[in-house]
Amino acid sequence: MERSLLIVYTGGTIGMKENPETRALAPFNFEQIEQEVPELRRFGYNIVTESLAPLVDSSDVDVDFWLRLAGIIEARYNEFDGFVVLHGTDTMAYTASALSFMLCNLSKPVVLTGSQLPIGAIRTDGKENLLGALEIAAAQADNQAIVPEVAIFFNHVLLRGNRATKFGAARFDAFKSYNYPPLAEAGIAIRYHTQAIRPRGIGDLQVLKRFDAHVASLRLFPGIAQEAVEAVVGIPTLRGLVLETFGSGNAPSLPWLYDLLRHATSCGVIVVNTTQCAADSVTMAAYDAGLGLLQAGAISGADMTFEAVITKLMLALGEYPATNDATSYFLRNIAGEKS
Ligand code: ASP
Predict the structure, then answer these.
(1) Binding positions for substrate (predicted)?
(2) pLDDT tens, 170-222?
(3) Which domains does the chain have, with CATH numbers?
(4) Who has the most CB within 10 Å: 42, 192, 255, 271?
């Protein structure tokens, strides 16, 4: 049976073309994508495109953008077998993480992709990325989607969306997943690592839509000044703080730091301990330096990416007004974001 796929174009480099006279990059009318990528016709899929208005450079992505994007997927969920979201690379991992938590009971693929070079450039990576993402979004076995989760396809590799992070600004392999293996790799054939892929959701799609943006992050460094920490912890509306610590979750043994954090957690602020290391996990009891954070009431970000931690925390706080409920949601494994 012919597969139906929806491409949602949100902005970013992939949808741009060089003006031959001025050589400046400008977005082209995405409804005419087949003119740029005639290979699309050869798939034999029924491909529908929808553009988000206005298009955004992904540096401008915000909660409202996630709501609009998830709203399109929700509204058109039953019409299509899979969804491909074209997105700027800069914040793609944040959007993929947010969608993975918002779209509950997902049973169809939502594959994000973009490119480092515009689709209208001669050496573009956009065509490969788009064609691969479409093939993955359409892939089924026994009439069921092979990848029923939110994923990022980039440079021949399919990564779980909430495990991915942008690591290169000017290279084709722009994304890495340090703590989880790829879901698929595209060579001559696309090889799916089925044991790494999440099971299909059971029941109807449900979309969580409440975010609370009263969160902040604080990256520790040797010599950090008390007033810098006070300024962040003292934000009157603060409900969540992501502390980026050293190694396996360690902080300097400064009594004022622990006092400030203890005060924050006792006032109901959720303090998440996440490591500055790209790979591996926070284990707070490994050293005294981490144990102190545990005693100050911090909770572990485990091996989640920063992108997953921040979006999950915002959703936890939005969906659950009581700190205890938000904390238990945050500590659960919701969409394969932690080991
Ligand atoms: N600044 C662009 C964006 O993220 C870069 C890209 O498209 O990759 O929207």
Answers:
(1) 58, 89-90
(2) 999 999 999 999 999 999 999 999 999 999 999 999 999 999 999 999 999 99
(3) 4-207 (3.40.50.1170), 215-331 (3.40.50.40)
(4) 271
Is 89 catalytic? The answer is yes
Annotated catalytic residue: which of 10, 49, 89, 91? 89
d(CA 263, CA 250): 19
Cβ-based neighbour number of residue 223 at 10 Å: 6
**pLDDT tens digit string along 57-94?**
999 999 999 999 999 999 999 999 999 999 999 999 99
Q: Which residue's CA is the closest to the ligand 1 atom numbered 3?
A: 88
DSSP assignment letter at 35? H
Instruction: Decide whether any atom of ligand 1 lies within 6 Å of the 129 Cβ.
Output: no
95 Cβ inside 6 Å of ligand 1: no
Which of helix, strand or coil describes residue 148?
Answer: coil
Which tokens in the block code for residue 157?
Answer: 């590799």
Answer for the pair 161, 112: CB distance below 8 angstroms, yes or no. Answer: yes
The separation between the first and the last C-alpha atoms of the chain, rounded to the nearest angstrom, is 37
**Which residues of the chain carry a pLDDT beneath 70?**
1
pLDDT for the residue 285: 78
Q: Assign 3-state DSSP to the chain and report helix, strand, coil percentages, each to 5.
A: 35, 20, 45
For the whole model, what pTM was predicted?
Answer: 0.96
Name residue, tokens 């992709």: 113
Strands 110-113 and 82-86: parallel
- Sign of the torsion formed by the C-alpha atoms of 199, 74, 97 and 326: negative
Residue numbering of the annotated binding site:
58, 89-90
CA distance to 105, 139, 198, 199, per residue, from 202 (Å): 6, 19, 12, 9
